[in-house]
Amino acid sequence: MLTDTIHIAIVEDDNEIRQTLQLILDGSAGFACKYAFADAESAIASIPDLPVDVVLMDIDLPGKSGIEATRELRKRIGEIDFIMLTVQSDDDSIFESLCAGASGYLLKDTNPADLLVHIKEVHEGGSPMSSQIARRIINSFRIIDNPLSDRETEVLKLLSQGLNYKDVAETMFLSPHTVKTHIKNIYSKLHVNNRAEAIYKAIKQKLI
């Protein structure tokens, strides 16, 4: 188990939050926080040359986002761990952050004691997540049963390739009326209202 002091950098544009975090971390046994930045650009310029183990990164920053900063820093310094500390709990922010190289994702309402535990966890190789974030991730990886029939799936695949209703009918040797019936059923089963929504949802859920 790692027992050395964990050196932390903070990237947070809110002065009060940044200063409070720095005081809490620097005043806690086993943690040191000597570096704090108000924007992504200064963090990107400085952190590669600093003795930092863990970076607490906000997402909404002036200029470049915390996600962009994480991506750039990850390319340059692979040994540092990044924890997103943010108010953003939407799927896009979560997955873009993880794809950019973040090892953890915490919401700003995480209490100080838990934050220290999570920082230690990521430093020891873990991937800490706020409970509601972990739940979102789990839900996204659940296997979704395809509610569409084979014929409906084929219709939607052709639509996603840019074919119109007439082209789909000719390709599948169906009447235009039958194709429209399939499309109506697709919309109903996927709970969408138009072609674009149907294609987007089907791709996201890996139905086509």
TrEMBL record:
SUPFAM superfamilies: C-terminal effector domain of the bipartite response regulators, CheY-like. Signal peptide: none annotated. The lineage of its organism: Bacteria, Pseudomonadati, Bacteroidota, Flavobacteriia, Flavobacteriales. This is DNA-binding response regulator. Keywords: DNA-binding, Phosphoprotein. The keyword Phosphoprotein applies. GO terms for biological process: phosphorelay signal transduction system; regulation of DNA-templated transcription. Residues 145-206 form the HTH luxR-type domain.
